[in-house]
Amino acid sequence: MIRSELVQKIADENPHLYQRDVERIVSTIFDSITQAMADGNRVELRGFGAFSVKKRDARTGRNPRTGESVAVEEKHVPFFKTGKLLRDRLNGG
Amino acid sequence: MMGKTLTRMDLSEAVFSEVGLSRNESAELVESVLKHLSDALVAGENVKISSFGTFSVRNKNARIGRNPKTGEEVPILPRRVLTFRPSHLMKERVAAGNRR
């Protein structure tokens, strides 16, 4: 399923909404999650999962082609952990 | 800086203020988005949300695990796990936002 198919499903269930409003609703939801993580917060959606930010320490990396050492700065990466209900449902629960 | 945990309520509040639907309907729409995502994944589909990321379902084979405390062997049954791969845009926004 891709974004436009998700929008279509929601639009089909809500005939009183304009398609462009459904698009805004879907965008607002995903954008709020990204923004929360950019602000250093986590988003916990019970039954679905939790989005959080993990810190990766600075390290010395290597250019795999030349073997040259390069300093890699500390960075923060998005992380998702599947919720219990969804994990169980994926396994026939 | 690390602190707040947002929930469904914060997402529906965002929909409420962005789109101008009632609070109730905003909450229902958030729920419905999560339901469609979950249903597609449970059906074994991958879900690709452009500029957000991709959720994929992977099959794991059975293997012998070990209880690290007791050293006891425990069978781990084959199972399906969900992985999320953030989009480049998300990675950039999260990295930039958390840079001091």
Separate helix tally of chain B: 3
Specify the structural class of chain B: alpha+beta
Please tell me what the overall shape of chain A is. Answer: elongated
Count of helical segments of chain A?
3
Largest sheet of chain A: 3 strands, antiparallel
Q: How many strand units of chain A? A: 5
Secondary-structure element order of chain A, N to C: HHEEEEEH
Spell out the helices and strands of chain B N to C: EHHEEEEEH
User: What percentage of residues of chain A falls in helices of 4 or more residues?
Assistant: 40-55%
Q: How many β-strand runs of chain B?
A: 6
Task: Give structural notes.
The complex is a heterodimer of chains A (93) and B (100). Chain A is α+β, with helices and mostly antiparallel strands and 93 residues long. Chain A has three helices and five strands, in the order H-H-E-E-E-E-E-H. In chain A, helix 1 packs across helix 2. Chain B has 100 residues and is an alpha+beta fold. In chain B, 43% of the residues lie in helices and 29% in strands. The longest helix of chain B has 20 residues, at 23-42.
Task: Offer a quick outline of the entry.
The complex is a heterodimer of chains A (93) and B (100). With 93 residues, chain A is of the alpha+beta class.
